[in-house]
Amino acid sequence: MKLNVTVDVPLTLDQLAGLFVELDDDSQAQFFVKVAALMQTWTPHERNTQAFYIGRHLRDCACSTDDARELIEEIRESMQADTKHPTEAERALEHFLSGADMSEFEG
């Protein structure tokens, strides 16, 4: 015998945000992957409209903060070519080309 029980547990946005920040980076990324997958049931127009409304809230709404906008911007920038965090080889080349002391790269 098997019994399935469904329990509705109301969560506030503060609670959801708290759960999100407790996740590791992979799980946080997977959260966005799952949201995107669920949104595939929406029409392209619905997805674009929702993105517009979210962006407008983050940009203009009194409910938003500079910290929230910076977080989204940092995520977006991190998906681009990694310019903020150069590799060790890129750093060494930059030091070499600038004529700086190379001792930290020796050995």
List keywords for this structure.
107 residues; mainly alpha
Approximate strand percentage: under 5%
Give the CA-based shape. elongated
Low-confidence stretches: none
Kindly state the number of beta strands.
0
- What does the main sheet amount to? none
The N- and C-terminal alpha carbons lie at a distance of 67 Å
Order of helices and strands: HHHHH
Percent helix among the residues?
55-70%
Chain oligomer state: single chain
Structure description:
Helix content is 62%, strand content 0%. With 107 residues, it is mainly α. The protein has a domain at 35-80.
In terms of topology, how is this protein built?
Blueprint: H1 13-22, H2 25-38, H3 44-60, H4 66-79, H5 88-98
Quick structural gist:
Helices cover 62% and strands 0% of the residues. The chain is mainly α. The longest helix has 17 residues.
